[in-house]
Amino acid sequence: MAKKLVKSRRQFLQTTALGSAFASFSLPLIAAQKAADFTANLPESMRQAGKPFSNYGQPSPYEKDIIRWIAANQDMPGNGVSWSPLHELQGTITPNGLHYERHHNGVPDIDPATHQLLIDGLVEQPLSFSIETLKRYPQTSRICFIECGGNSNSGWRNIPIQSSAGYAHGLVSNAEWTGVPLSYLLQEAGIKPEAKWVIAEAADGASLNISIPIEKLLDDAILALYQNGERLRPENGYPLRLVLPGWEGIVNVKWLRQLRLTDTPVMSRDETAQYTDLMPDGSARQFSFIMDAKSLITSPSLGMHLSDNPGIYQVTGLAWSGRGKITRVEVSDDSGESWLDAELQEPILDKAFTRFNLPWQWQGQYAVLQSRATDDSGYVQPSREALVANRGTDGFFHYNAIVSWEVTEEGDINHVYPF
C-alpha cells in the first residue's frame, strides 16, 4: 500500500506538472482566440477608440433626463425655482449640478477679483474682506442640508398634487460646504453689546436682505467658498455664500456682500410679506428659521410602477432635521395603522440628510406607503391632519407633514391624503 501511495503521489505530481505546462502553453492561445471572436462580434461603435480626456467631467448623455425641473416667472425668468430630482438620486450628497435653486432676480455674474465682503454697523471697527483674503483664514467643512422654506408647499392644497417625489419636495439638497467660520470675522470686527441682529445682503439684482439673530452666526455659520470640494457654482452663491446649518434657505444668503450688525431686524419684504405664515387665529408666524424633521420615500414613489411580478422591493428615502440628528425613521404600508423601523444608513450627521432603507414584500395588494422621522430633540414628524389642525390651511411655508404614496393592485403609485 505504501509503494502504491508513493506511486500515486508521484503520478499526481507528474500529471500536475505536465498539466501546468500544457496550460501555460495553451490557455493564452485559447484566450486570444476567444477575445478575437468576441471583438469581431462587437458593434462598430464598441470597436472604435474611446473619447479623449476632458478638462471637466460631464454626466453620460444616457442620463440626460436626470435634471433639475425649472419653474420660473414668465415675465421675469430670473425669478423662480428649480427642484432637485431626489427620486433619481442615491446616497445623501447632492451633486453640485443638481442642487436646487431659488432666485429672486437671476444669477449674477460676479468677478471674484473685485468682490468684497463688508462687516459694519454695531462693530468696533468695520472690516472689508476680498475673496483671496478669506481664503487665507482657517477653513472648516460641514455636511448639511439647505431647504427652501417653501419646499413641499403644494401639501397645503386641498387636492394632492401628482408630481414626482423630487419635483414636489426637491427644494432641498445636501452638500459638503467648506469655508471660514463667521465667528472668526465677527470677533475680529468687535461686536458691540447692543448688537442683537445681523442684516445679510446679497449682491444679486434684487439686493436681497434678511435679518438673522447674531447668536446663530456666532454658533455654526460658515462663509462658504466651496461646495462638495470645488468652488461654488454661480447658481449656488459664487463667489461667497452664507451657510446656516438647519435654517431655512432664505437666510443662507448667496452672493453675500454685506453683514451689518444692528439692534433690531430690518423687517424686509422677505421677512414680512414673504416667509411668514397666517395662523388660524389671525396672527402671523414670523422668523420661523428652523426646518423641522421631515422624511420622504423616494422609491417606490409617484411616477414609478411596480413590476407585474410581486416580490421584495427596497423602500428607500431621505430624512433630515434642522434640530439635529435623525434618530429614527418608521415606515408604514397601511396608511399609518402600523409601523416598522427602517435601517438608517451611516454616517448619521447633524442637520444633514440620512438615508433610510427597508425591504418590503409586495404581493399585489393595495397599500399606502408612509415614512415618519424622529430627531434627537424628540420631535416627531406630524401627519398632515395634525399639521393642518395646528397651522390651518392658509400657510405656504414650512410644510413637513408625512407624505403618502398609494400603491394600487396593478402596481401604479399615486400621491394621496390618507384622511
UniProtKB/TrEMBL annotation:
Residues 104-266 form the Oxidoreductase molybdopterin-binding domain. PANTHER family: SULFITE OXIDASE, MITOCHONDRIAL, SULFITE REDUCTASE. PROSITE patterns: TAT (PS51318). The keyword Iron does not apply. Residues 291-392 form the Moybdenum cofactor oxidoreductase dimerisation domain. It comes from Methylophaga thiooxydans DMS010. The lineage of its organism: Bacteria, Pseudomonadati, Pseudomonadota, Gammaproteobacteria, Thiotrichales. InterPro entries: Ig_E-set, MoCF_OxRdtse_dimer, Mopterin_OxRdtase_euk, OxRdtase_Mopterin-bd_dom, OxRdtase_Mopterin-bd_sf, Sulfite_DH_SoxC, TAT_signal. GO terms for biological process: sulfur compound metabolic process. One of its GO terms (molecular function) is molybdenum ion binding. Keywords: Metal-binding, Molybdenum, Oxidoreductase, Signal. Its cofactor is Mo-molybdopterin. Gene3D superfamilies: 2.60.40.650, Oxidoreductase, molybdopterin-binding domain (3.90.420.10). Residues 1-31 form the signal peptide. This is Oxidoreductase molybdopterin binding domain protein.
